[in-house]
Amino acid sequence: MTSRPRYRIALAALVAAGAIVCGQAAVAQAPTGAAPPVPAEPSVPLPPPANTKPGLLAAGGALDSGTPDIVMTLRAGVQVSPSYYGSDEYKLGPDLAARFDYVRFPGGFEYGSSRTVGFRTGWGVQGSFRYIGERDKDAIEGLDDIPWSAEAGLGLGYEQRNWRAFADVRYGFVGHNTWVGELGADAIAYPIEGLTLTAGPRFQFGTDTFAETYFGVSSEESTASGLETYDASGGLLATGVEIGARYLFNERWGVEGAIGYDRLVNDAADSPITSTGSPDQYSARIGITRRISLDF
Asked: What is the mean pLDDT of the chain?
């Protein structure tokens, strides 16, 4: 009977000793404090995607310098005009134009304003281009063919917010190879934001060579066509009016159009060529405009 209590006491002592040993081992292995957090890798911003648009279309690209030396507005589109001078038939052709809004010359001299959007004030220089379609032998039987012509030149103008006046001089570098000129003035209105309306008179001039090319009839042509021989002189050849509209989508892009009426006068009106058609000449054009800023 006395052996069982001793056995139980020994067994209890053994269990207690095992618990103490395990507890000490657990204390020895436990961390003395929480491990510091591992710092996260700093985030690196990804580079912006490359601009794959051409410079003409991209905002802020090579054609939109923030410190420009040249600011200009280009226009490209189509026009409908008489098939030839004095014609009462019409054809489609190109319409191109350029206007210089600002130029910074070496030495610090500046012309215009680099902040110009929509209109400018003061004196200005503009490019001028005109396309004249060919007159073939089918237009008036018996007359010589006249190839198409392309004129290019410059114009000088003065502009305020509500009016402007200008003078253009062009040379026919393809075709007639002589000089022409145009005088004009416009009243300007801004009915809504971005929209500009213009209207005013036009006066067109040409040299003797120009007038003879388009309105003259030689003796050989007279015999072949039955028209009277005619020597045309230059000077004022047409007067008219033009009504235009321009809408700016933003500081770079816009659309521009105009309709015009010209009445042939003087030797242009008296030409036998005009008598086969009409002295009343109508035209219409529309094109996209793009303001570009270049840094050299």
From this structure: 81
pTM for this prediction: 0.72
Alpha-carbon span 195 to 288, nearest angstrom: 14
Owner of token pair 């209109």: 119
Q: 92-133 pLDDT, tens per residue? A: 999 988 887 777 777 766 766 555 444 567 887 788 888 888
Q: What's residue 128's pLDDT? A: 85
Query: Is the pLDDT score of 271 beyond 90?
Result: yes
| Residue 94 near residue 131 (C-beta atoms within 8 A) | yes
Q: How far is residue 231's CA from residue 211's CA, in Å, rounded to a whole number?
A: 9
Q: How many CB atoms lie within 10 A of CB 86?
A: 25
Q: What is the pLDDT of residue 234?
A: 97
Domain boundary assignment for the chain:
70-294
Among the four given CATH numbers 2.40.230, 2.60.40, 3.10.350, 3.40.50, the one describing domain 70-294: 2.40.230
- DSSP helix/strand/coil, 213: helix
Percent of the residues in the chain that have a pLDDT greater than 90, as a whole number: 55
Distance CA 170, CA 179 (A): 6
If DSSP states are collapsed to H, E and C, what string results for the chain? CCHHHHHHHHHHHHHHHHHHHHHHHHHHHCCCCCCCCCCCCCCCCCCCCCCCCCCCCCCCCCCECCCCCEEEEEEEEEEEEECCCCCCCEEEEEEEEEEEEEEECCCCCEEECCCCECECCEEEEEEEEEEECCECCCCCCCCCCECCEEEEEEEEEEEECCEEEEEEEEEEEECCCCEEEEEEEEEEECCCCCEEEEEEEEEEEECHHHHHHHHCECHHHHHHHCCCCECCCCEEEEEEEEEEEEEECCCCEEEEEEEEEEEECHHHHHCHHHHCCCCEEEEEEEEEEEEEEECC
